[in-house]
Specification:
single chain; about 190 residues
Amino acid sequence: MGFWKLLRNAKNKLVFREYGKNVYIAPNVIIKRPQLVSIGNHVTVQRNASFYIHPSNKNSTSCILRLGNYVHIGLNNVISAVNSIIIEDYVLIAPNVTIVDSSHKYEDIEIPIIFQAYTRGGTVHIERECWIGTNVIILPNVTIGRHSIIGANSVVKQSIPPFSIAAGAPARVIRKYDVDKKKWVRV
């Protein structure tokens, strides 16, 4: 019985830290260390997504990746977590998005980078109701505020405030929602 069939077997849903109702995980999804992953209700994970969970403490039992309710993870997404990645409710993530909370060390030139440890990194927090566009890269120590939009092909290196639209490499806020005018305005 393959990994995909194990995920579909109700008895084996307990391999996840938490596993909600109406969860759809498409074929060819890779989830390393699912026991450190919490999945809410009505979550969709599309084909070829990869979740690499590498806790800095190998004996950790803490939740490292948390997907809220009504989260949609698009095709070919990569999420790599060492510390903590939280994706709150109602988040839409388009195809080909990469989210990382750490990186590889590279300082020792006597050791190939692939064999060097992960950096200490930080956390990534995507608050509720966000939309992350196609080909976005989200780097460590970032919070994307509630109901924000990250434009396609952006690289998010710093936190984005709530109710903002950010784009570019590096991403910068280009619009914010004006509560008084009740519309999105250029920054």
